[in-house]
Structure formats: C-alpha cells, structure tokens
Amino acid sequence: MQAQAFETDFWKDAASRKIWDDIVPGEPRETIPYTLTLEAIQKYCRSVGETHPLYFDEAYARASPYGGIIAPPSIHILLMFSCTPANDWMRSPGTVNAGQAWSYNLPARPGDTITLQARALDKFIKKERLFVIHDNVFFNQHGEVICSGRGWTIRPI
Amino acid sequence: MSVTFETLAPGYRIEGPSFDVSRESIRAFCEASLDFNPLHLDDDYMKGSFGKTNFGGIIMHGMNNFGLITRMLTDWAYPSNAIHRRLETRWVKPVKPGDTIRPHGVLKSKLATEKSRWVVIDVEVRNQSDEVVATGEALVEFPHRATSA
Predict the structure, then answer these.
(1) Does residue A103 belong to any structural domain of this protein?
(2) Which of residues 30-69 of B touch A (CB under 8 A)?
(3) Within 13 Å and on the Cβ side, how many CA atoms surround A20?
(4) ipTM of this predicted complex?
(5) Backbone angles phi, psi at B105, to 5 degrees
(6) How far apart are CA B41 and CA B118, in angstroms?
(7) Which of A74, A130, B20, B93 keeps 20 to 30 A from B124, CA to CA?
(8) Is A72 helix (H, G, I), strand (E, B) or coil?
(9) Is A62 contained in some domain?
(10) For A83-109, how does the pLDDT look when each residue is reduced to its tens digit (9 = 90+)?
(11) Residue A8 lies in a domain
C-alpha cells in the first residue's frame, strides 16, 4: 500500500525540503513505519538479479537456518525511501550518493513493520562540495535492530 | 560451494555476477528502491552540471553497485552458513546505460574473536573497460555454530 501512495516526482516537494544550510547535525529526521511485503522484497531482488531461494522459495527457506523467507541485507536501500516522508532531504533532486557503510544484525522478513531512527550526523565542505553524513538504524516490530548504516551525500548547490 | 574459516587464506578470490546496465534496469531499480532521483531518470536534467561535475546523461544508482556486491557476498556466504555482517563502499566512477559491471572480492585478512570468527574482504566493481567504478570492504562472520542471526 505504501508503494502505491509513494510520490515518485521528487521535484514536487522540493521547495519544502531542507537544503544544506538548514540541516542541523544531530537533529532527528522525521520517519514513518513501513510494512515490508514479500512483493516488495522480491521486486527489489529482481532489480539486482537476486535469485537465491531464501528470498523466493518458502519451503527451502523454512528448512534453512533462517526458518522462512528473508529479505537480502541490502533491502535497506528500499527501506530508506519507504520509511521517510516526501519532504525528506534525501530526496532532493541532484543529491549525489558518495558511498555508504552498513552493519547487519538480523534479516528483515516479509510482514515486518520496520521503523527508522535517522539523523544527519555531520556536515562539511570539501573541495567546494557540500557534504552531509546521514546516520540510520532500522528496527523490526520487536524493537530488534535489523541494520545500521551511514552514508556520505553531496548536496545540490 | 561451501568454504570453511580454517581453509580460507588472504588472496582468496570471490567472483561476482555480471550485470548489464540499461535504461530499463535503472528504471527497475527506481521502482524497486523508490529512489526516483532525476539523476537516474531525466535526460534533460542531466545535461546540466552539479557544481563541478557534469555526468552527460542519466547514471545508475550507486546503490545498485551496493546491491550487486551484496548479492555476491551472500551467495558466497550462505552455503557455508556464514553471515554477511558489513559492507562499506565508495563510488569511484559513474555507471551508465550500456555498461556491464561485475563485482569481485579478495580476502584481505581473517581474525578469531572471543566469540566468533571473521573475514575481511576487499571488494571492487569494474566495468566492461576494466575501470573500477566502486570500491569497498566487507566483513563476513563464520560463527562456530550455524545460527540464523
């Protein structure tokens, strides 16, 4: 359902988004809970050519140490956008991702209600480019950490 | 093919899957990741410059590299009941429609801690011209006993 309501025109809310000057390191970003579906997991898998039966074959996954279908660790790529509102500065057109680092604790699973705690951790200027480091932790409905990560973005000028 | 912590040694190489990048693959990644940044969609927008950078056309999501490296690592780790624990990446060069990219990894070091065992893997993604488009480092855990976490 979330995917259907998702605003795909990233220009639409551009004026309401924080620019580099407005971003306060340490200030929490607004986030929204998201229910991860099997369909969303498998759509993501197909987009990067993932075919592992842990993501597609319930019988295989049930017999595995994971006990059921899981999402690949990199599902946070989807969760970053599904757990943030349309005016989040991560969507500002021209935002360039310079790199990310993620640590994985537990796999996300279909049906999980995922929440995100996120903030800008730092901002700086390097080689006349405007950088913001973002800091994120995704939790499941049991309050367990799924994964945590940081990203380096270059902000549009 | 499964491997064991004991037999792995620095220099061990992991080959990842080849991935053909197209406007369609980039669009599919937009739909699957919900990242509709015009960098990946809008040819007219991409004629402009970003500060000092001009990409000259739409570019693939950097996180598509990340997803491909993850696929390589998990496909390698699962049969050995190992767990992909960390991935750090930097994008070195933009990837464009028509490119073919492929990740690989080289085991850098291994270490046993009080409770578990770990291997550090240098990762890289190269394009069809053998240019490096992404670099990074991964950490894979080889627990003493297989667990689901």
Answers:
(1) yes
(2) 30-39, 45, 50-53, 61-64, 66-68
(3) 19
(4) 0.93
(5) -135, 150
(6) 40
(7) A130
(8) coil
(9) yes
(10) 999 888 888 888 888 899 999 999 999
(11) no
